[in-house]
Amino acid sequence: MWTWLGRGDPRVLGGATVALVLVILVIGRLRRFRRRRNRDGLRSVELWRHKPIAGAVLQWMALALLVAGAAGAALLWLLGFPSFPSAAAFGTTEVLELLKIALAVVAGLGGVVLLAVNMRKQRVAESEHLIAQAKDEREQAQSFNERFGTAAEQLAHDNAAVRLAGLYAMAGLADDWVANRQICVDVLCGYLRLPVRENDQPDAKVRESVLRVLRDRLNDNWRGSALELDLTGARFSNQTVLQLAPQRRLLLDHALFEDGVFTVGPMNAYAVSYTGATFRGSETRFEWGGIFTAAHFAGRLVFDTDRTWRRFRFIECVFAEATIVIKGEGERISLVTFEGCTFEGCLFDFKGVVDLGEGEGNFLISSSTLRDGKFDLRKGSVTGTVLWLIDSKLENMTFTVDSEAESRSAKSITLVNVTAVGTELPDSHVFHRDQT
C-alpha cells in the first residue's frame, strides 16, 4: 500500500493531520473571542490586530494549506490510499489537467490572501467604531457630570433666582440623563428636605416650583420611569406634594403638613408612606386611601362618604384638638379604621351624614382611648350605626343629640367591650354589646 514519504501508517498520519488542523482552528477561535477590558470598562483591540498585514496573510495561507492537506489526506484515506501511476504514464491530456489543478490551487491561494486582507480591514473598522463609540460615551458622561455639578452649585446658591435656575437645569439634566435620572430626582427631593427659611418668600417660591416640576414631569417626561421620591422630614404648606405620582414609592415619613388645605391620598396611595407624619393644616381631606402609622393630626379632618374611595387605616396615631367630620350620602364610602389611637379633645361631627347607603359600620375605632371629646349625632334623619367602638376606653366624653321628639330615626354608635369613665351614654343613640 502507498505510504506517505515512505514511512509510517498513512491512516495514522492522515488522522494526526486532521487532529492538528482541528486544534489550530479551536485555538484561533478562542483567541478571536477573547476580549480584554481597559480601566474604563471598554473593549480593547486584540493584540493580533497590531501585527503587520503580511503576518496575518501568512497565517491564513498556512491555515489554508493545512486545511487543504487535511482534506487531501482524508480523501486518500477514504479511497484506501491508491497507488499513483509513474511519470511515464502521464500524457499530454493528463499534464494539462494537472496544470488546471495547479492554477486552481494558485487562484484559491490568491482568494485566501484577498479574504485575509478584507477581514483585516473589516475588523480594524469595527475596532475603530467601538473606540469612537466609547469616546462619545465618555464625552457625554463628562458633559452630564459637568452639568450636574453646575446645577447642584446653583441649587446651593444664596440667591433664590440662581436656585430657581439650578432647579430647571437639574430637571433638564434628568430629562436627558436617563441612566441617572433617579440621582437628579434625589437632589431635588434633598432640597425640599432642607430646613425651611422662615418668612423667606423667595425660598417658598423655589420650593413650590420644585414640587410643580416634579409633578409635571412625573405625569409627562418621566412617565414610566421607576422613580422613588424621598421627602422624609420635609415641611409642606402646599397641596402639590400630595399630587405627586411616582411609579415606585413616595416617602413622606415624619413630614410636616401645615397652614394649607390638603387632600390626602393620591391614586397610587398604597405606594405612599406617612409614618410619623404631622398634619396640622387648616383642613385635611381624605379621599383615595392610605395607611398612617404613628402620625399626628390636628385641625379639621374630613371624610366625605361620596369621595372616599379606598380604605384608610390609622395605626397608633394621635389626634389632638381635631374636628373629625364624617359627611355625605354614603355612595362610595370605604372602610376607615383607627387601631390603637389616642383622641384628645376631639369632636366627632356626624351631622353631615345624609345617608349611610352601604357604608353602615365602615367607621371603626378599636383598642383606642378617647378623652375629653364630643360626639355630635344631631340631625337624625338617618337610622343606623355611624361608628363602631371596639375594645376602647371613653373618658369624659359627651354626646350632643337631638331631642326625643326629633330622634325617632337616630344615628347611633355601637359599643363592643368599651369602658366608659365619666361619660354619660344616651340610650337612644348608643347600642351596647358586652360593655364592661
Helix content: 25-40%
Overall pLDDT, averaged? Answer: 78
Order of helices and strands: HHHHHHEEEEEEEEEEEEEEEEEEEEEEEE
Give me the count of strands: 24
What fraction of the residues are assigned to beta strands by DSSP?
Answer: 15-25%
What ranges have pLDDT less than 50 throughout 5 or more consecutive residues?
1-8, 35-43
Structural class: alpha/beta
Shape descriptor reads elongated
Number of structural units classed as domains: 3
Helix segment tally: 6
What is the radius of gyration computed over CA atoms, rounded to a whole number of angstroms? 42 Å
Strand count, sense and barrel status of the largest sheet are:
14 strands, parallel
Transmembrane segments: 12-31, 52-78, 98-117
Organism: Amycolatopsis umgeniensis
Keywords: Membrane, Transmembrane, Transmembrane helix
Protein name: Pentapeptide repeat-containing protein
